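Hi support team,

I submitted a single chain yesterday and got back a structure, but I'm not sure I'm reading the token output correctly. Could someone confirm the output below corresponds to the sequence I sent? I've pasted both exactly as they appear in my results page.

Thanks,
R.
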Amino acid sequence: MKRVIRIYFFLFMLMTTNFISSGQSRLNNPFGLVYQDAITENVPGEVHIHTVTYKLNGIDISANIYTPANYDPSQNFPAVVVAHPNGGVKEQVAGLYAQRLAESGYITIVADASYQGASGGAPRNVDRPANRIEDIRGMADFITQYAGVDADHLGLLGVCGGGGYSLKAAQTDKRFKAVATLSMFNSGEVRRNGFMNSGLATIHDRLKEATEARASEAAGGEIRYAADAEWTDEMADNLPFDLYREGHYYYHRSHAHPNSTFRYTMSSLLDLMAFDAATNMDLINQPLLMMAGSKADTYYMTDRAFHLATGTNEKELFLIPGATHIQTYYVPEYVAQAMNKLNEFFGKHLK
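Hi R., thanks for writing in. Yes, this is the structure output for that exact sequence:
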């Protein structure tokens, strides 16, 4: 029995491990952006990027704001808050969608989560759901005070883990008039049960480890981290799920950013494992759009949350044909399909 538990524990750590890359450390883009056709300079008559910093509960938050080509601070524009994936930063997929939405006439904001990326907070890489939800509310606080923003026409887009946290934020924060997710990832469910329930046998072992890590922190000891192993391409290729295989190459090869890391404090599991993005979905009474790739192995999370969203009369589940989870982040044809649907959705409910 102990041998079986050890095997399940190894598989779970395999599914949640961090892939540290020897890839991109110097970025060619002056804004640090790593996606295709990213802004390299603010050209008159085109979408502009504005780097900003603001305080949220005493922590410095690093964010990018994108303004449309016809931006005039004396006019009113709808706005969209964009929440990034777990381990991701604002310069990756969240920035791509924020820029594309600005090209469609929205003022958008994407910020690094507290304790992560270029934002402040110590110890580094704390990953608690309450913090991520508060980060989304903080972006709403800031952008609704930004010149030219119509606070009554505010939308929310969450990608991957940011999608799960966006669902929770929208359940209670009714400033968000329309809510969309892309490749939603239910962080608590996966941290607790493992991806596709692959870690059920080790739940209490991992809770014990998280409890010990919390006790160590309280005693002034070292900060212990989960998902902090180094992996090679060959090792990643042998992983059983597309999400993690393709995630390795996206985050640590093709779209690597030095601020992006999947490691998180072990003690964060005490909060993560008690979290479920799909609870209280009936509290969402705003229009809801949930998008996922038709081949995404994470689709089961979107499907469950969508069907629990009984509080809204306007909801749509949109599948992107042929796309996996990670491919919705960057493959042009899949991004175009997602953007077409977002423009239709936000155009109807925000403009």
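A quick pointer for reading it: The chain has one domain: 2-349. Let us know if anything else looks off.

Best,
Support desk
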